[in-house]
Amino acid sequence: MAQGDPSARRSAGTETAVDVLLRWARIRRRSSAQDIADFKGGQPLRVVGFTKSIGGAVMTSIGRGKKIARTRSGFLRCAPGEMPVWTDRTGGKKSVPLRPPFAWKPVDGKVPTAPKFERYELTTADGTYDLIVPKKDAELMRHVFGGSEAERRDEAGRV
């Protein structure tokens, strides 16, 4: 399935301007617990995020010949039975499938100018990446990437 597939629903932490207005009007949106239940039921989800390393670092000049890795925004598409796919916001040409085994670990430190986001380290078969996701989606990401293979088999009902 492609990143823009309409069947992939936005996660609870992936808010649009309309979602913010609805929250101000005290109209509730989905919760992370509902996202996890939907994911277990087969619903693909899209989680907004930021990274410097997935898909290769993009270097930006800061003057005097110095360059730093630039943080890029994008979406992580998670679907049961499929590899998660990172797609830069610039489009589908920069899609990177993330291959198991996974290790999901929180990283200390705040995300500058983004208090509703948390920083994580994602280890895959292809390497270790930085990933910044909404705090609301942290539990969903732990469910998708965290836990041992034995825990995943037990949840699926297989031994």
Structure description:
This protein has helices at residues 17-24, 32-40, 138-145, 149-155; strands spanning 9-10, 45-51, 59-63, 66-69, 72-78, 85-88, 95-97, 103-106, 117-124, 127-134. The protein has four helices and ten strands. The chain is α+β, with helices and mostly antiparallel strands. α2 (32-40) runs parallel beside α3 (138-145). β6 and β7 form a beta hairpin. It has a five-stranded mixed beta sheet with strand order 1-2-5-6-7, with no helix packed on it. It has a three-stranded antiparallel beta sheet with strand order 8-9-10, covered by helices on one side. Helices cover 20% and strands 33% of the residues. Residues 148-159 have low confidence and may be disordered.
- What class would the helix/strand composition place it in? alpha+beta
Number of helices: 4
Strand order in space, largest sheet: 1-2-5-6-7
Shape: globular
Q: What amount of the residues lies in strands?
A: 25-35%
- The low-confidence runs, each spanning 5 or more residues with pLDDT under 50, are 148-159
Average pLDDT score: 80
Write down the oligomeric state. Answer: single chain
Kindly, what is the distance between the CA atoms of the first and last residues, rounded to a whole number of angstroms?
A: 29 Å
